[in-house]
Fold:
Amino acid sequence: MPARVKTSTLRITQRASVAFALGISLLATPLLAAEDYRLGVMDKIHVRVAGWEPTEGTMQNWEALSGDYTVGPSGAVSLPFIGSIEASGKTPEEMAKEIAGKLQQQLALRSQPSASVEIAQYRPIFLAGDVNTPGSYPFAPNLTVLKAVSLGGGLRRSESGQRFARDFINAQGDMVVYDSERARLIARHARLQTEMEGSAEIKMPKELEKVPNAAELIRSEAALMKQRRDRYDLQLKTLADLKSLLQTEVESLQKKSETQNRQLEIVQKDRDKVRGLSEQGLALSSRMISAEERTADIQTQLLDIDTNILRAKQQISQANQDEINLRNDWEARRAKEMQDTEAELEKLNLQITTSRQLMGEAMSQSAEALKFDPSGRATNIKYAIVRDEGDGPKEIAADETTPVQPGDVIKVTSELLMQ
Structure:
């Protein structure tokens, strides 16, 4: 293939790759709003740095800087070429700007590189007080006080008559988690069904009509569907552009071949005349040799043209096969994801049924157990969150539905009240 075709093809692929990377970065749904979240000790961040290479016309990743870094006890992270940077209290966007600026300054770059900072892992939360297993636990999105307590094994009760109440709370916490996961899976199932049908809009499933955050779940899945569809369409367009480019090359080579064939006919006629004159002794042998050389040169050029045409047609055939594989892979992945989602839903429905049965049993047994409580007292559970927002830790009153943020300490206390 000529160099100009290879260069064009390479640039098409490179631009497609950059488009894929930018699309994924812009459409990915963060766990927390990046513009609001402030980094803290034990947060793990993922840094990516890239720079534009004008001589090559490509975006180059800086592998030496890109990677995961943990905010240390001092509130700083240490990066290659830059050194220690204060991270605690800054947003990921502020960190990215500072990294790009320091790189430009330290390396004396003409233009500022592109840097991005994402949260790879949030700092843990901590459970303290009357929980079954106090300690640190990984932060999860949409975490509430009740979900956090369920991570620690639920509430700790010292009275034997209240053991079933603890079982009820544990099962109730599991139900909250299961219901949230079930809603997410139903939204995913609706999105996959829409993709397989080729529709443009996800219809609201009946199972989600009464779920409070149903619209948000559908919007999230719709954004993911658009991102995946855009990437698929861009891959198809890249292959179509490549085939169009190769077809244009084939047509150009065929026209060139026609021109060379006409020249060959002219040269062969001239050679035949010279040969006839040479046989009659009317032409020099050098003229005969020159005619033969011109004929051989044109025939060689024709062979090169035919070889290039054949190579371009083979590449067109390979691009057609790549397009078929891409379409088959798209359909196969949707089908596989649908099967996995349906299996997860079936498993989750069984877990929900089991939790409901445990809750019903705990409620009946707990009411019966209160008859044998000699103290005649009930338990009042209080929750509080200790949170440091940059101006020192503060205690905030909370309940079971209060959202939890990374680094929070959830304090649980139980008080016995007279009935």
In short: The first strand starts at residue 44 and ends at 53. DSSP finds six helices and eleven strands in the chain.
